[in-house]
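Holo prediction — copper (II) ion.
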Amino acid sequence: MGDILSVFDMLSWFPENISTFGQELDDLFAIIYYISVAIFFLTFGILGWFLVKYRSRPGHKGYNYHGNNIVEVTWTILPTILFAGIGLYSDDIWEKTKYSKRVPKPDVEILVLGKTYGWTFLYPGADGKFGRNAYTDRTARALMTATNPFGKDPEDPASADDFMMENQFRVPVNANVVMRGSSQDVLHSFFLPHMRVKQDVVPGTWMNIWYNAFKTGTYELACAELCGGGHYSMRAEYQVLSKADYDKWLDGKVAEVAAASAPVAEAPAADTTAAAPSN
Amino acid sequence: MSSTTLAEHAHVDHGHAHDDHGHHHQPWYRQYLFSTDHKVIAKQFLLSSLIFLFVGGAFALFIRWQLAYPGKPVPVIGSMMPDTWVDAPGSGIITPEFYAQLLTMHGTVMIFFVIIPFAVGMFGNFCIPLMIGTDDMALPRLNMWSFWLIPPAGLIMMSAFWVEGGYAAAGWTSYPPLSASIGNPALKLNGQALWLISLFLVGFSSIMGAVNYVTTVLNKRAKGMKMFDMPLTVWALFITAIIITLGTPVLAAALAMLFMDNFLHTSFFLPDHLVTSQKYFGGGQPVLWQHLFWFYSHPAVYIMILPLMGIVSDVMATFSRKPIYGYKAMVFAIAGIAFLGFIVWGHHMFQSGMNPLLGTTFMLSTIVIAVPSSIKVFNWLGTLWRGNIKFSSAMLNALAFVSMFIIGGLSGVFMASAPVDIYIHDTYFIVAHIHYVLFGGSLFGIFAGIYYWYPKMFGKMLSETWGRRHFFWTFIFFNLTFFPMHVLGVGGHMRRIYDPNVYDFLKGMAGLNEFITIAAIGLGFSQLILVGNILWSLKNGRKAPRNPWRANTLEWAAPAHPGHGNFDRDITVYRGPYEYSVEGRDLDYWPQWEPGKSVTVDHHTIAVADDAGETKVFGAH
Ligand code: HEM
Ligand SMILES: [Cu+2]
Ligand SMILES: [Cu+2]
């Protein structure tokens, strides 16, 4: 029974929020929710009242009345004010979360690429900078293949330490994480339910995705745009780590990449296949 | 003449309705198949839409089964399902690929083969000529074709069953590159290509119908009928037809481009260097499709609801015995919605990657469009106020329309707020919204219209008892099915996923999913009552009188079961369609075709006595 009633307490169904702007989005949802509940009871109350009061019964008659302009104007203006209020208030939050010029200065920058069916991530590695790839240079799109989805240019030394992750990623807590998202084939949508983040990723274009998590833990990433039969299986996990843990993990990765790419430097012939290790 | 009785009329004017139509001498296939009679065409739309309603419903139940019981075999018919639908022959377990086909076909069939043909094809055809008091459409042959494109379109869509890969599977919105079938060799016809061809034909059908409606309304109104004497049903259909003529060509262009990308490997919607086995030129933009598609499809959601808003208004006036509150405001609201409907399409694309600046613009325009929608709701409530409300089946469905539309409109406001939409976009919240407006709104409106006009359509009364039962079960199961979907959406449950259980954050919702499925099965089976009632009453229904609801609009001046040519007397219009409960009259209605004088005082109409008095009521009984 409690379960059934909880359906009416809609707000209780949100998954836990872990991002800084998430609370604002949830609050905005709650405001509209309470307004809606009020309008719902008001209109359904009036409806029910009229249906009972004016039901047909012997001796009762209808009333020929064609309406009144003052009333019409009133009930045009009132909802306009209400809706405009919601719109203007919403727009502040929208600009803050999505406008390109409002994307914060990244503490961590990651590339993410959707594919049927999975997610690949590219970290800038030891130098903290991406080398030439499909994001930093449009012409590098020509290098994109199934094994080198980001079109990393093997000739560019700055590219060598950029490393890939498959279906999982890690970010530090309390840091501005900026991701640039795209797709290598069809549309996907990068959805972090606990962060209240959603952004379609479109092949050929890079989208800004940013957030700042205030809680550590392991959470889920889902695809929210139909991308084929396996759409449902585009699940990935991510970890929000404390700064220390994150740095430790990153150092480990950097060392791993350096070790893996060392022999490649001596045998350049092999470097087309030396896509970054992924794990 | 004015005091002639009904029987005399029928006698005297007998030859009149038929004289130049040669109705009796036509071979059967001209009467029943390739008829140019708008009423026959309306019945054809009714039949095809009803069939597709059950096809689309069956698709939906498969979807629901999978969501409630992922990986379990479909009961009863599971072992009979074709091998391409299931993971192993005879297993009855739906594959993820077939699941995507199911959800695509469900949406496509319901929107393009059920709601639009019902709302526009059936009611447009049936109501417009009768309600403006004319013999037929302005362009009857074009009208016939507008129906006869539907069966081939449906067959083409369904024939994807026999091609490799099955039905289209990119959703009813068919976003490329997925819908360009980028792994598919050129010149190989797949389900998606068939989908595109089929919708192209449906678009043609819509345009032919719409051109006809506009022409008919402008040119063929009965003597004395000004535009503002038209019932809201006609207004709504007229404005809807204008939307169709403006919007559908854009859809057609987009479909043609996508077909070329799919079949000929052009790149209207495909960027360079996709990682795929096929070669494309590149240079296209996937999001362009979304702009074109929604430029049509947002107005199309109004194509799907405006006619029903008109119908519901008429039903409510009749059964409240009251004029529509704010008739002109209602007309302006319809026109306002139609106009604004063309500048809000981007609210479907807040997260699509279009410039976020446009998000602001489209959010504001969308919020503006909620205003005429609320005006309509208030005016409906105003119409009930001080009425004399009779709860017929038609009225019950109309009331369901209003109340469910309120809920659908409110959920629309959540999504119209772009930042709120970030989280709920592409979740079950959207699915809940769609169904509150399209099932709770449009379909209940369609039911209201069917119950209301069935007597004129078939000359028989529908069973009210079964009508109420159908309404009751549909209304209950509808809410049990779709209300909890809001909750799923708030929980983050994505739409169009095959198996929610792979996600930890969705684990708590399995119970809700199961509950929804059980309700959905009930909802599906409740519709058998409607079909049963329609068929049973056809044979056993009480013979319908000419004007069973004592309504004012012109269709009720026509014989109980009008033949080709509609009217058996000349129609002149003397007043607006909503003069119910006029002071100074004994009867609580005053048909548009009946002479008589009145004055308007302070928004009331008062009849002015003249010699002929009540005896002139034609069609009264
Ligand atoms: C107050 C009026 C309404 C508002 C503010 C509104 C707003 C919206 C918004 C913002 C979306 C996009 C949500 C998203 O994908 O994230 C949407 C989707 C939709 N709306 Fe409405 N809506 C309204 C009325 C209607 C009506 C009357 C209909 C149809 C009769 C309708 C049919 C749809 C459909 C079919 C979709 C989903 C399309 C899809 O993605 O499959 N809406 N609505
Ligand atoms: Cu996906
Ligand atoms: Cu829309």
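READOUT: Helices of chain A lie at 2-6, 22-53, 69-98, 243-266.
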